[in-house]
Amino acid sequence: MSYTPNLLLRNVKPVGADFDGTETVDIRIADGQITEIGTGLEGNDQEDVHDADGNYLSGGWMDMHVHLREPGFEHKETIETGCEAAAFGGFTEVACMPNTNPAIDTRDVVEYIKKKSAELPVEVHPIGCVSKERKGESIAEMGDMKEGGAVAFSDDGDPVYNSQLMRVALEYSSMLEMPVINHEEDLKLSRPGHMHEGRVSARLGIDGTPGIAEETMIARDILLAEFTGGHIHVAHISTAKAVDLVRRAKAEGINVTTEVCPHHFDLTDEEIERRDFDTNVKMHPPLRTQEDVDAMIEGLADGTIDAICTDHAPHAIQEKEVEFIYAPNGIIGLETAWSVSVRQLLNSGVLELKELLDKFVKNPREILNLTVPEIKEGATANLTLFNIDEQWTFDEQQVRSKSANSPYLDQQMNGRAEAIYNKGQFVVNEI
């Protein structure tokens, strides 16, 4: 790692509104601002020089759905270690979910997270609770949390199950011009599922969660968004029918957006059997079928799915090293999201590079009403330096999270983030 507010990036290929990734330029940054873009720029005594060797540069990536666990569960992750994982993965900004202890349901907890992350190179945006203590009984102090720095509202980890409460939340959030992000799950249909309900779960004799548990809640929320005019954001979408529901709602002009995790467009429920009940392939929503994976990819290609997120969910080793049905749901994902996306979406020809970057840079910020970083003179430097072809192995040496519960451990990756620049800090990833 190295930190400097003044930097000359040589031999980079910018990708953004004014650049298509074919032109190699030099970029000078002074006091955290892009001051000059050109060729053959000379360094000076007040700046560090970094030769990017012809690799790509984009606006800094954002993950709009992570669990940093702090406050309350620091044995799994802290704000600092979560941001280290984010930087290694190429993310300059993350939005953290409120299932902490105490929950992010008041302004003081929002401000605690903002203060705790203020000096870190990764910007942390807290997501406030919809309901007090995430109990689903009464509305949280939404306006006050916005004043403190919250960017959205969610009870993620659990759905907003009460339809009247969701209606009120959407009405309030509409006035605040902020989205409600719902964990879409009908609890009466889903519990006590430990994996996707289908042929594999039947063969293995494990209680499953059917896709309709997700789809019925999405249908309800779409109808409530239409009724209230509020913005509903579907968290970690995972079924083919769910994608179709969002697609049709968008066609009707309803204010709905959605995100998908790399594991849901890469892995299927067959992994549970193939890996002999490895708890690192247990997450929620669960891994679905190949038909669902194909639908995620189609939804990304046609724009139905707006953003790629990780649902980064660290768990301590002793929590995951138990029998499959007793293990908590969730995996880490910040360090591997780009590589999986390159393999599944870019190398396969599903998306062009700029289209893929929109899912990481522009779309998540537009959903959360945040400033989209630009590569132009005079702009604040919020940047990710990356490649799309480097071969590397994601082993425990490369894990920056405090936890290591990943289905991609010891697998070969293709493409990685080489560095980020944000908040006047340049962080170079060493592997």
Automatic annotation (TrEMBL):
SUPFAM superfamilies: Composite domain of metallo-dependent hydrolases (SSF51338), Metallo-dependent hydrolases (SSF51556). Pathway: Pyrimidine metabolism; UMP biosynthesis via de novo pathway; (S)-dihydroorotate from bicarbonate: step 3/3. Zn(2+) 2 binds at residues 156, 183, 236. Its cofactor is Zn(2+). Zn(2+) 1 binds at residues 65, 67, 156, 311. It comes from the Bacteria. Keywords: Hydrolase, Metal-binding, Pyrimidine biosynthesis, Zinc. Pfam families: DHOase. PROSITE patterns: DIHYDROOROTASE_1 (PS00482). It catalyses: (S)-dihydroorotate + H2O = N-carbamoyl-L-aspartate + H(+). Binds 2 Zn(2+) ions per subunit. Its EC number is 3.5.2.3. Substrate binds at residues 67-69, 99, 315. Residues 58-240 form the Dihydroorotase catalytic domain. InterPro entries: DHOase, DHOase/Allantoinase_Hydrolase, DHOase_cat, Dihydroorotase_CS, Metal-dep_hydrolase_composite, Metal_Hydrolase. The active site is at residue 311. PANTHER family: ALLANTOINASE (PTHR43668:SF2). Catalyzes the reversible cyclization of carbamoyl aspartate to dihydroorotate. Belongs to the metallo-dependent hydrolases superfamily. DHOase family. Class I DHOase subfamily. This is Dihydroorotase. It comes from Fodinibius salicampi. The lineage of its organism: Bacteria, Pseudomonadati, Balneolota, Balneolia, Balneolales.
